[in-house]
């Protein structure tokens, strides 16, 4: 694999019941809101940061950070992975591996402020 994959702390879920989900995670689980925009709320969960996004449910999405997203995508597709969703404006490239795990491959360099994770 031409990229060194490194796990980010970010896990994303998407739901049409966005207000209910945010209320659940903040009031029932007591998670602190650390990011809020029109379509996305970030919640600090300790070992990971949970993002709740408005939209069609796709199950939890983990994130791997790589120095070269196109090269990583190419290598993953050659090894039997499939693209689930792609949006260069997000940036987002959701991949499902042959074993059922869905993850985003994200840029690990300065395009995300040098910190990795979601580019917010």
Report on this model:
InterPro entries: Glyas_Bleomycin-R_OHBP_Dase, Glyoxalase_6. It comes from Dyella monticola. This is VOC family protein. Pfam families: Glyoxalase_6. The protein has 120 residues and is α+β, with helices and mostly antiparallel strands. It has a single domain (6-112), classed as 2,3-Dihydroxybiphenyl 1,2-Dioxygenase, domain 1, CATH 3.10.180.10. It is 18% helix and 41% strand. The protein has an eight-stranded mixed sheet, covered by helices on one side. Strand 7 and strand 8 form a beta hairpin. The protein is elongated, with a radius of gyration of 14 Å. The two termini are 28 Å apart. Mean pLDDT is 88; it is low at 110-120.
Question: Which features characterize this protein?
Answer:
eight-stranded mixed beta sheet; alpha+beta; disordered C terminus; VOC family protein; Glyas_Bleomycin-R_OHBP_Dase; 2,3-Dihydroxybiphenyl 1,2-Dioxygenase, domain 1; Glyoxalase_6; 120 residues
């Amino acid at each position: 694999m031409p990229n060194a994959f490194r796990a980010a702390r970010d896990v994303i879920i998407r739901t049409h019941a966005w207000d209910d989900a945010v209320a659940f995670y903040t009031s029932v689980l007591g998670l602190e809101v650390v990011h809020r925009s029109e379509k996305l709320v970030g919640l600090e969960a300790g070992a990971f940061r949970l993002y709740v996004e408005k939209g069609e449910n796709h199950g939890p999405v983990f994130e791997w950070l790589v120095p070269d997203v196109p090269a990583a995508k190419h290598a993953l597709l050659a090894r039997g992975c499939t693209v689930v969703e792609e949006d260069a404006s997000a940036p987002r490239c959701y991949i499902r591996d042959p074993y059922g795990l869905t993850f985003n491959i994200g840029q690990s360099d300065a395009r995300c402020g040098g910190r990795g994770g979601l580019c917010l």
